[in-house]
Design a protein that fits this description.
Largest sheet: 9 strands, mixed
CATH superfamily of the largest domain: Umud Fragment, subunit A
Strand content: 25-35%
Structural class: alpha+beta
Distance between the termini: 32 Å
Shape: globular
Oligomer: single chain
Mean pLDDT: 83
CATH topology of the largest domain: Umud Fragment, subunit A
CATH architecture of the largest domain: Ribbon
């Protein structure tokens, strides 16, 4: 099979993650996630993925994408490693992906969708150190007490989620850092994923 470009690989991972959560993405959803101006640009990438034997496009369906041999894809493609995230951009935008790490997503529970390079030592006491690769399951939901990847305004951070009566608190695991309190009714806030494991750097 012809090797995938970084953009094609990222789109394939996005499709697989969406299917894992229930439904294939629409062209509009792919375009929005990767910053394309028109869904047609997303469709051209899907045609390329079909030509390379990764997916099948089902004509006449809004979510007509079927993964071909997904278990082999997961083993061979690896996980995208996300470095510094630009303000306001989707976390899996191709410009954020440094490379792909050959590791089976199914080693993590729930399965990992991407790796995030950790900056700083605010989660030190949870065993997450500066430079580590945090494995993340892409989801918009999390329970009280779970470690999450959260977006606050234009910043992305890894913290433990506490659900309070009228606000959310993102707690570090290092006494040198203060918790971050967020009122989701007033601030731009989103859960980007759930921390499911770590790969130690070096």
């Amino acid at each position: 099979m012809t090797p995938l470009t970084d953009r094609q690989r990222a789109i394939l991972e996005f499709i697989a993650s969406a299917i894992g959560e229930g439904l294939p993405p629409t062209l509009a959803e792919i375009a929005a996630a990767f910053g394309f101006n028109q869904p047609r640009a997303a469709y051209k990438h899907l045609q390329a993925l079909q030509a390379k034997g990764c997916i099948e496009l089902l004509p006449g369906r809004n979510r007509g994408i079927r993964l071909l041999n997904p278990s082999a894809r997961a083993r061979n493609a690896g996980l995208p490693l996300v470095g510094r995230v630009a303000a306001g951009a989707p976390i899996l935008a191709v410009e954020h992906v440094e490379r792909h790490v050959t590791i089976d997503p199914a080693l993590f529970n729930p399965r990992a969708d991407y790796l995030l390079r950790v900056k700083g030592d605010s989660m030190r006491d949870a065993g997450i150190l500066d430079g580590d690769l945090a494995a993340v399951h892409r989801t918009r939901e999390a329970r009280n007490g779970q470690i999450v990847v959260a977006r606050i305004e234009d910043d992305v951070t890894v913290k433990r989620l506490r659900v309070l009566a009228s606000k959310l608190r993102l707690e570090p695991a290092n006494p040198d850092y203060a918790p971050i309190e967020v009122d989701p009714r007033r601030a731009s806030f989103a859960i980007e994923g759930l921390y499911v494991g770590v790969i130690r750097a070096g």
